[in-house]
Amino acid sequence: MPARLGATNYGKSRVRLFRVVRDGARHHVAELTVDVALEGAYQAVHLEGDNAAVLPTDTMRNTVYAMAKEHPVTPIEAFGRTLVRHFLGATHHADGARVRIAAHGWDRITVGGTPHDHSFVRGSAERRMAYVSATRGGERYSAGIEDLEVLKTTRSSFEGYIKDRFTTLPETRDRIFSTVVSARWAYSAAPADFDAAFAAVRTAMLETFAGHDSKSVQQTLFAMGTAAIDAVPEVSEIRLSLPNRHYLLFDLARFGMENANEVFVPTSEPHGLIEATVVRE
Amino acid sequence: MPARLGATNYGKSRVRLFRVVRDGARHHVAELTVDVALEGAYQAVHLEGDNAAVLPTDTMRNTVYAMAKEHPVTPIEAFGRTLVRHFLGATHHADGARVRIAAHGWDRITVGGTPHDHSFVRGSAERRMAYVSATRGGERYSAGIEDLEVLKTTRSSFEGYIKDRFTTLPETRDRIFSTVVSARWAYSAAPADFDAAFAAVRTAMLETFAGHDSKSVQQTLFAMGTAAIDAVPEVSEIRLSLPNRHYLLFDLARFGMENANEVFVPTSEPHGLIEATVVRE
Amino acid sequence: MPARLGATNYGKSRVRLFRVVRDGARHHVAELTVDVALEGAYQAVHLEGDNAAVLPTDTMRNTVYAMAKEHPVTPIEAFGRTLVRHFLGATHHADGARVRIAAHGWDRITVGGTPHDHSFVRGSAERRMAYVSATRGGERYSAGIEDLEVLKTTRSSFEGYIKDRFTTLPETRDRIFSTVVSARWAYSAAPADFDAAFAAVRTAMLETFAGHDSKSVQQTLFAMGTAAIDAVPEVSEIRLSLPNRHYLLFDLARFGMENANEVFVPTSEPHGLIEATVVRE
Amino acid sequence: MPARLGATNYGKSRVRLFRVVRDGARHHVAELTVDVALEGAYQAVHLEGDNAAVLPTDTMRNTVYAMAKEHPVTPIEAFGRTLVRHFLGATHHADGARVRIAAHGWDRITVGGTPHDHSFVRGSAERRMAYVSATRGGERYSAGIEDLEVLKTTRSSFEGYIKDRFTTLPETRDRIFSTVVSARWAYSAAPADFDAAFAAVRTAMLETFAGHDSKSVQQTLFAMGTAAIDAVPEVSEIRLSLPNRHYLLFDLARFGMENANEVFVPTSEPHGLIEATVVRE
Predict the structure, then answer these.
(1) ipTM above 0.95, yes or no
(2) Do B165 and D269 touch (CB under 8 A)?
């Protein structure tokens, strides 16, 4: 045999779950997308077609719904813990289990000024994320945000960079800064309140974005990451991925008009992409 | 020639515009996607390749940005009027001009409890729409909503329908009702305040959805449309398109568990699709 | 009541079907997405919540699969006919039934130079469409193509158009012409061979696109439509929707380089949009 | 300062390029999407807002087009090499440069049985990928495939797996196997002919998929990876990611009909996900 098996994982992705909890007439809802993966001793599966070690991904799916009946699904980190512990117990062939949960927002509809008991309207595309991984030795927790779109109309400059033969970008002291925050942070230990920890990191990043006098996306990224680490003691590090979505100043001078940072063309591609990890000292 | 030219239209689609208006330190923003189309006497263009009557779509694009400098872009119906009037003036070959504008939501970031002056976070995917069409005789206005996702966890039943050989759906007095509202309504005359009219229709539809004891999507649709017509005198008719996005009760009985409308599987396809027009008497 | 019910329709959308037909070891496959809609006397459903006239959309879904077992699913027009006839028979409340079918392409994998018996690779995103509608008086057939992307690197010009204050586009005798064909044509009578008719229209449009010396998208559109009408006697009219996807010449002169129509930036938005109907005389 | 900077990278993503090469009347086209990223000593950028070390991502974009004029863009690995070498030369602050190139397929339109000189139709969504990374010490090459959809209607079984309380999946000796191949393989050294190496890996994977008697996705994955390694001596390892897209047998027994693997429901979510690396011994 000229080839051997390297790292493997298998599981079920995009298991969609909606959970209703009734507190009298007041209904609470959670809509989640769950991914489950196992890692382990799966040599015979891959090489010999022997499925004796395989917990089917269909069973993983069923299990997600059964666990959602018997255990809380929020905070999502706790539901992730329920799942990884179950799956490691369900098969001794697995050395590790990983669960990724995305929470999709539903806000209560306001009726006559009051949030309604059982009717909801979709929030933004932003998703709260939880990543729980377990080995036989214990669990690890990370959390994150995906698709949090933010924009500021001033307090962003970009100057003093390298110029070469292919430079055409003018330096600017005032531009639009638009990005879609993807962040993932690791907890050195499970915080006492996962919801509060998430909210604190989110607020720290948003307020830093808003207040920062940005000299570059890179500088703002580091400030946001530092603020996140400052906000929650259990955050050991945070990885931020910030596309720079360009809002181009439309050239109105050709029509004898001035454009004092008033009229822009939002663009999707190409985009800058700035990524860095900020680590607690 | 075995063929003749029927109805035609041409224009520019997906012109993306971002407009900043500064009120001192307070910045107001609008992000729009604009589609422009002309109709008219374009026989020679299609049959002979004679472009003398063609206002290029590239010029339409430039014009959108120029008009956004010189005229308000909100309410979007007013910007649509600016555009259709301009385009009919720009080419006598056009008999009609149509503009479709989608407004994408940006909310202010809250910093220390206060909405920020110049920093914003993306709202939901919901889009406010304006449709303005003009002929040499005048303008017509419609408005709409796209991708307004709503869900209620009770007060929705479905019973008493036709049963045949292929029926498997059980009747239910309590199900989840989830839909994505697409609505478009015509104004018999321009309302005095387009923003207020839009808000009134939106609120009427949301509150009706929340409060209605639904016997079918069809019945709720009619109630929502009626509420919209009641809310704004200038609304002459409204077309609603309501997909029925099925949230399926997961079968936990196989595992010896009860599922008292607690655990559901959200699905995207297939979906029901209920469409109707409600007309003012 | 201030409002009355206007036009309505309801049904099931995005019913996904995969059908295997075995000819010994040789397997034939069809992957379809089916939309079903009924129109009729549904006043009581909408106004009173009386579902006695409602054939549930869930039953429509079941029926699609049952009919796919008992009847051929290709040509898709014939399957559409099976479905509309069934649904009109299933409920006397319906005045009309409409079915829309999209066929997704699978090509055989070539193994050792030979097309494989039961293994397939996905084709392009192009979809063959069928639209069958029925009333109590009979059926009507249309067919179409969606997402047929084509491009030519020369033999496309655009000159002689209107110039005004907002014109910046230079005239050109040689540009890239890239579009995504959406076409829908009506048959005055069912052709003897739906597959052959579809193939003839598709070939006529592709060959015309390739061979045409284009003075505008409008002119090429009319030529393609005329070719389709010439190709199949039963085609009574055809509607074409051709976005003009701009491939922009990148300005290399700033770097002291020439760009002799060699280096382009493909763009998605904004795009021109040219639409017209060509009608058999 | 409580935080320090960890790993960083920055660059430009989704730079879309279309290149035409004319061989007399015969035109050759390439449509690429290019991502560029640099890694290096960017401490001052992130912490102090000092941009002296920053080659702007806008310049990266310009450079891609300029290099596409002066150098071949195919094979895409060679274009990647051109780019990484340029960027390392353009800034001594970078320790490493990475380029990712996706090639989008255009096939010639057949006119009267002959492939046309300058007119093209889009191929499938499958994309050929190249990944070139460079440090001051040299370059590394990987290649890959994205979105290669394949399906087989038989010769796929799944039996002998773990059963537990949550198992509902029946064992089967004959099911549909549908996946979307994502593969990425590393070259230990640049092959003499990148195009031939790519084609050999692709053919090996497709023919293995078609011919394999599959006892699990895992087993077929390993067979495909092994075939790739067998096919090209420079392939040192290959990572495969194979979603198991379930085509569910529709339950026709409820209607008194048999379903002998004839009528299926294609689904998108949830899906299995099987991933593994196969390594040359």
Answers:
(1) yes
(2) no
